[in-house]
Amino acid sequence: MTDLNNPNHSCDQAYAAYQSGNRELAQHLISTILGNNPSHPRALHLQGVMHQEAGQLGTATEMIGMALQADPANGVYANALGELFQSQGQRQKAWQCFEKAVSLNPGYARSWNNMGLLKHQDNQFDQAIQCFQKAVSLNPSYAIAWNNLGAACQKQKDHKSAIQCFQKAIQ
After folding, report:
1. pLDDT at 3
2. pLDDT above 70: percentage of residues in the chain
3. Average pLDDT for residues 39-57, to the nearest whole number?
4. Which residues contact 128 (CB under 8 A, 6 or more apart)?
5. With bands split at pLDDT 50, 70 and 90, how would you rate the model's confidence at 45?
6. If DSSP states are collapsed to H, E and C, what string results for the chain?
7. pLDDT of residue 104
8. How confident is the model over 88-107, as a mean pLDDT?
9. Do the beta carbons of residue 64 and residue 81 sit within 8 Å?
10. Rounded to an integer, what distance in angstroms lies between the CA atom of residue 138 and that of residue 155?
11. For residues 87 and 116, what is the distance between their CA atoms, to the nearest angstrom?
12. What integer pLDDT is reported at residue 4 of this predicted model?
């Protein structure tokens, strides 16, 4: 089933298996790919995602960090690493990863939302609002970002805007 001559196809199969809930097959495919190419970035990323899901944050951080080293121009990997750092309370490292992600892919709404979350947690609501606004401008159906924007507007006592954002979040 694993096509060693086409590791990207095998990686596609691993992602499909993972998304369909077949973690065993996904792990087998990823292990095979990494056994033949230990620095395959997509395989390292999925391996990291699987470790994160299992609560193994240290290993997940290592694997996704390796994926980013192997493909330093990949904003998705930079964002994923930032999310791991954020979940471990390493806010400065998270911020650096999110900044790298948006510099690599300015249209990646998830990274803008993540930057807004950090600013919101720092009570920098004006900057948080700017980040959330960027996220929803890039992805108008991004319910989580609309909700976060509403929460930031609420903190600024802009209740009318907050209500409008919350309404967009549930549409």
Report:
1. 54
2. 97
3. 96
4. 116, 117, 119, 120, 148, 152
5. very high
6. CCCCCCHHHHHHHHHHHHHCCCHHHHHHHHHHHHHHCCCCHHHHHHHHHHHHHCCCHHHHHHHHHHHHHHCCCCHHHHHHHHHHHHHCCCHHHHHHHHHHHHHHCCCCHHHHHHHHHHHHHCCCHHHHHHHHHHHHHHCCCCHHHHHHHHHHHHHCCCHHHHHHHHHHHHC
7. 96
8. 97
9. yes
10. 23
11. 15
12. 55
Distance CA 63, CA 149 (A): 32
Pairwise CA distance, residues 48 & 77, whole Å: 10
The whole-model pTM stands at 0.89
> Which single residue is written with the structure tokens 């990274």?
111
Q: How far apart are CA 154 and CA 120, in angstroms?
A: 11
